[in-house]
Amino acid sequence: MLDRIESTRKSFDEDLSKVTDLASLEELRIKYLSRKGLITQIVDSLKDVPKEEKPKAGKAVNELKNHTNNSFEALKLKLESEAVNKEEFIDLSLPGVEKTIGSKHIITQTLDEIKNIFKGLGFSVYEGPELESDYNNFTALNFAEDHPARDMQDTFFVADKFLLRTHTSPVQIRLMTSKQPPLRAIMPGKVYRNEAVSAKSYCLFHQVEGLYVDTDVTFAELKGTLVAFVKQFFGQDVKYRFRPSFFPFTEPSAEMDIWWEPKGKEGRWMEILGCGMVDPNVLKNVGIDPEKYVGYAFGMGIERTAMRKYGIDDIRILFDNDKRFLTQF
Ligand code: DAH
Q1: 262 CA to middle of ligand 1, Å?
Q2: Which of 15, 188, 289, 312 could cross-link with 208 by S-S, CB 3.0 to 4.6 Å?
Q3: pLDDT of residue 193
């Protein structure tokens, strides 16, 4: 028995010295330490050892078990940590993972540009909600209850007396009822119209509203401000003109056109905004004394302006979220 133990120990040590990886270590485990392995067989055969030899044999078997188990575990630990280190090895010559970075939508870019120009002209930025009351969207802006002007704006009604705002002009009302003049702000945002969708019009678009209320505001200042704006936005040599117009909330009212010559096409005047002196009725509606204060206002659509600037001829593409289009800007 003792001889058998000794030779098993020798062969185990020899086999162990040949183990180079986890796979050959597993073979060693099966050969010696598994349930049918050589060591287990020796333990089992202890019962056949004559009584007087048992203490010695038992001790030797225990030593063998300890030796093989300890050697096995030590080598296993070593090989496992080597394997982990191998996996974590970083190959610095591998190409990196390319990260794609998003870009601002051209409507956002255009809005940012317009905001920056007006900030430079002394305007702050004020925003109002897209869900509006009929009162703020129409009545306070001097649209009479059954005034045909209400039909100019095909409205999405959400509930009785509540609607998706058809223009950013109601934000003027919010600003004037919440703050005292002097007031000078632009009010950008989304507006909604219940219109048939086509290359030229969409049910949703953006506007930027402007308002200046103080004791001595003039129409000349309105013109000067808007001219400064179009020169910065379209370029110093932009050609522009003002035409008389009508809006319920301004008197007198005008529209501003710029001369537009698309490449290879005939030039023409394009309307870019509406403007005028705030109607005294509007000031009265918000509790500002029209004898003391005057104001001017303007409102412009963003999509058409951006389309002109970037040479886009179908408004729908701005809302499609097609990456082939978006990644061009
Ligand atoms: N709210 C008008 C529209 O949606 C645009 C407009 C015209 C705004 C004249 C104004 C203004 O503030 O003075 O067509």
Answers
A1: 26
A2: 188
A3: 92
